[in-house]
Amino acid sequence: MNPPAESPAEGATEVVLAAAAAPGVAAPTAAEETPFRRIAADFAASRIALCGLGLFALIVLCALLAPLISPQNPYDLAQLDVLDGRLEPGTRSGDGKRVFWLGTDDQGRDMLSAIFYGLRISIGVGVSATLCALALGLSLGLAAAFFGGRVDALIMRVVDIQLSFPAILIALILLAVLGQGVDKIIVALVAVQWAYYARTVRSAALVERSKEYIEAARCLALPGARIVFRHLLPNCLPPLIVVATVQVAAAIALEATLSFLGLGLPITEPSLGLLIANGFTYMLSGKYWISFFPGVALLATIVSINLVGDQLRDVLNPRLQR
Amino acid sequence: MLAYVIRRLLQSVVVLFVMSLLVFVGVYAIGNPVDILINPNADQEDIERAIRGLGLDKPLWEQYFVFLQRALAGDLGRSFAYNVPALQLILERMPATLELATAAMLIAIVLGLPLGLWAGLKPESFAGKAIMTGSILGFSLPTFWVGLMLIMVFSVYLGWLPSNGRGPTTDVLGVPVSFLSWDGIRHLVMPATNLALFKLSLIIRLTRAGTREALLQDYVKFARAKGLSNARVVGVHVLKNILIPIVTVIGLEFGSVIAFAIVTETVFAWPGMGKLIIDSINVLDRPVIVAYLLIIVTLFIFINLAVDVAYSMLDPRVRLADAKG
Amino acid sequence: MIPTLAVDQLRTHFFTRQGVVKAVDGVSFDVHAGKVLGLVGESGSGKSMTGFSIIGLVDPPGRIVGGEIRLKGRNLRDLAPAEWRAVRGDRVAMIFQDPMMTLNPVLRIDTQMIEAVRAHAALSVEAARERSREALVRVGIASPDERLRAYPHQFSGGMRQRVAIAIALINRPDLLIADEPTTALDVTIQGQILAEVQKLCRESGTALLWITHDLAVIAGLADEVCVMYAGRIVERGTVNEVLDAPLHPYTRGLLDSVPSRNRPGAPLRQIPGMSPSLARLPEGCAFRERCARATETCLSEPPLYSLGGREVRCFHPIHAEDEASVE
To answer: If one looks up domain C1-91+175-263 in CATH, what number appears?
Structure first.
């Protein structure tokens, strides 16, 4: 017998869309739209999200190609002339060879170049921290969901306690203890973020685990690894993608904040946060560009990632699928 | 209900003890305990005397008990930099941070709820989309950078607002507050707005998501089928449902606001706990760091507890779970 | 005697990215005071959407695009939104399938009942509460004062549905639309609710439009039946006529697939295929691809014929002689 009639909220479009939304089941009449194409189409429906994606691609490109496109290598002391320091945007350098489009800082570094290199570091740290946290959180979350019982309770307790404390505090304390350095920042960021992934993965995996076909697979004594990878894992991907995207932005922002506070990356690897911190003291005398432009670059990066993540969340949220 | 509160209270105390143990282990076992508690500039004799005096030559578990005893008596060590008890130092600075955090939270709620509601009711309208894009900007903008820009515009170029510090304070019930004077408000406005930005975006998004989901529910259709006015459907039926989770989030986020005030206080030189901890980390004033950690942990645990209790009181499904059906 | 409800060629379409979905495509029927009309169909047949269209709760991207809805002669489609709101809950009421979510979980029962009264009459809170009390008694709820102060989650499913019915009938509407209100309930409770509603409607002369997919419910409750398929009415008649001697192959199929009508041991009969997507209906008769009786003629759309006091939308309706040969 057919399932009971639609709830008032679903309406007739349920018949059209329900088949396509059911995981793995293709309706005979709606088969032309694969899930991926549908998601891509839904995503592209927002022009703002597309702009975000484009902007982010551009930024990543700049970061990757930094050594090639920077007018100056800001960390090569031979290329710096302190007399070029604190020049306004658009000024020509003392030897006339180049124009400082975005001005210089107190050491005579071209802001544009510093920003490109800074982007590299900021994005690099943010992405690697996210990937490590993802790997850690994913394993722990899957373990919690798969083994259940005591393992689950223990892991989730730790996750809960960790998530009830603000990220900045945890990172602050870790860095106070560990000191400065790229690896230490990444450790701090991973420690802050893994819990989100663990919780997301566990929830999604639990939903899938309670479904009957997993019971059936277990009855058939399929190896645990196979159940986990072929069944539990794919179901976790949509929420995971959303969380990871937003978390990259959060990681970049957190690293910038920590660097600004003087606890993050050391001066030898200046990320955008440090550049902004450098310019703090010059702001009150009106030399805004030393802080302003790195800030805009940081802003553009974070906003573009968040725009993409936002649209992904709307598109992949099953409860808003109508 | 009472049983629930007592149970949560006991749980909180347990967590508190566990955290104190962690802090103790972090401070005593990792890193050199001598450096942590004793001023590294003292000469050798003083150091040895201090070691004996602080019981650092005793076994670890005995040290933990001593630590615990002292902590419960309110003695968390003396600050190296200021040479006053660390606890006293922090408590002196707490009202400033709390004032900032409360002001920020109020701004976030008063602006966030209506904006989020509007965005949820009319998601496809220009205003709705603008609010959402604005909210993305709100939590993407790094707080410290916004603070800098605010100072640049309002202090340096326009000269309207002071760029740092806290206004003059008056005592209310023994607690010094600065918002009662015009000058105090002038000093409070920028840092509070800066701090509020992130939470404002969060509340807007939460409210919008909650509203959108609530509008799809059957009880909204049923309310409409009764012929109720739109104002009542939204203002009573939808609002009451979404307020419950939002209030709990706001409660939990308050703790995070207090922590995040560290950044705002640094940018605006606001004399609160946050600025203190950054300065202390920079000069390695470890007793203050330990004291700050313990106090923050305690604060958080009790905020969480308060929120849990409040939630169970607000949601009738939880409150009356033991009533007969 | 004009019917309480006269629906005439109602069309409600949804304008989606996948195309136009004709959820309700030219539906007409009448319901008289104190009578029960059963609207039967599967999921996706458009029956619920018909109910929503009548009460004016069609959400975008859907819209009523044609036809008339006459309540005691007054065309509801002519009404301004404010006027329609005055009618809703007062002259036309609706109850839904899941009593769990129909009542707002965080508001008390009396709040939800009193607001239904005060939205349409300038009564004091006390007077409204008194009316609510009476309404609860009328649907058979004991100790109404206690119940009024309670929250929905403190009731069982059957009780909640009774409360919903009480709210719906509190202003003595002319028409009650019931969208599968008993599907989510136990069978015994189902019977009670059915009896209750039937009694209340006969007593107060309220016309009842009962939407369901369950033929057994219709058999015991309705006076007239309309069978819907793919947004259209395919058969209409009194309940005895339609259930004892169905004309449309689809109705026949529905009846046959009820297990209790089968001979023990014989394989269960089912209608082959699936109901079509409303955005891509086959050419001609919508049931064509699943019908054993389909011929070339069925490639053009069959109109609704009158056949001995009944109506059917089929070029090859089942007659009594066919019945004998099918068995």
So the answer is: 3.40.50.300
